[in-house]
Amino acid sequence: MKKNAKKKPAQSGQSLVEFALALTLMLTLVAGAVDLGSAFFAYIALRDAAQEGALYGSIAAVVEDPNGTMGVYDAGEPLNTAAIINRVRQSSDQPVDLTDVTNVTVAVSATNPPCAGGGITVTVAYNYQITMPFIGAIIGSQTIPVRASVTNTILKPACP
Fold this sequence. Notes:
Oligomer: single chain
Strand content: 15-25%
Strand order of the largest sheet: 1-2-3
Shape: rod-shaped
């Protein structure tokens, strides 16, 4: 007696195709998580550098005039911007090279007048380069802008 039952079509490659599709999606997610984690690590370094600059600026906010009253803000004393920026740039070189003036920008601002009780703000910005090129194609850019800003209270010089 012959059986007239039809055979099922062969599906030997179906699981391989499903695995390849799932693996592609999973690797994309893992690569994205690695890049975002690394960008967050860069943000932590920027925040620490901004905190270092704001802390330094809170005790050395202005370039004091040697002919003026020491320890008291004299009108016209400039904000100590260069020294604060230098302090930020020298605070770290890993994972972000803060001495790289083309990729890292540092801005310093303070209340007017910059004396005790006022605030000083240090902002550090950096364009993080994405390491996985296809992630950049998905989000539309090969860089992620990372920015940290810290405000501290100025401790000296005293206000007149």
